[in-house]
Amino acid sequence: MSIDKFSPFETKITIPNGVIAQLDGSLLTIKGPLGKCSKDFSKIPIRIFKTDNQLIIQSYKRKKRDYAIFNTVQSHIKNMIKGVTKGYTYRLKIVYAHFPVSVKVKGKEVYIENFYGERSPRIAKIVGDCQVFVEGDDIVVKGVSKEDVGQTAANIELATKVKRKDQRVFLDGIYIYAKE
Fold first, then answer.
1. For residue 6, what pLDDT band results from cuts at 50, 70 and 90?
2. pLDDT on residue 168
3. What is the spatial distance between Cα 117 and Cα 24, in angstroms, rounded to a whole number?
4. I need a surface site. Which of 10, 17, 114, 175 has the fewest CB within 10 A?
């Protein structure tokens, strides 16, 4: 396969059965059995076209930076397709030594109570359409968008970050231990 010196980078992503992709300008919406996921590519210098069962991605230029952006967009679209077919699940473990920590989900927030014996709860935001479940000492975050699930899990983990203490000694907190 030879590439013309002035031709842009181009790739084709096949849309699997049971998945519907809609392209409205630069807004790509992908619907599948688990839900829908949409992303706006208007700020990124690429072109996206849709044929019957394929998405065609083209880059404007042939520079190293443009190739990196091109591959990033390709990965985003593949993650969206995987999210609406299989979904993403992050598992977090609640770890404590003296004060038993209780975690509650209220609306779009996760309340972490009695962390280090504190009277006021620590609050972490739930991003997007993620679902958060508490199962004993585990917290399960599920969703179709990899970015939303990862950010929600990171928000929960960062809410229990202890400052000015040695993390090797003071192990209390909530930590991500599995990504599925």
1. very low
2. 84
3. 51
4. 17
Whether the CA torsion 37, 39, 108, 179 is positive or negative: it is positive
Eight-state DSSP code of residue 63 = S
124-127: Cβ within 8 A, 24+ apart: 124/152, 124/155, 124/156, 124/158, 124/159, 125/152, 125/155, 126/152, 126/155, 127/151, 127/152, 127/155
Give all strands of the β-sheet with 102-106 in edge-to-edge order.
102-106, 109-113, 122-125
**Amino acid letter for position 167:** Q
Contacts 24+ apart (CB under 8 A), 115-122: 115/160, 115/172, 116/162, 116/172, 122/159, 122/160
pTM: 0.89
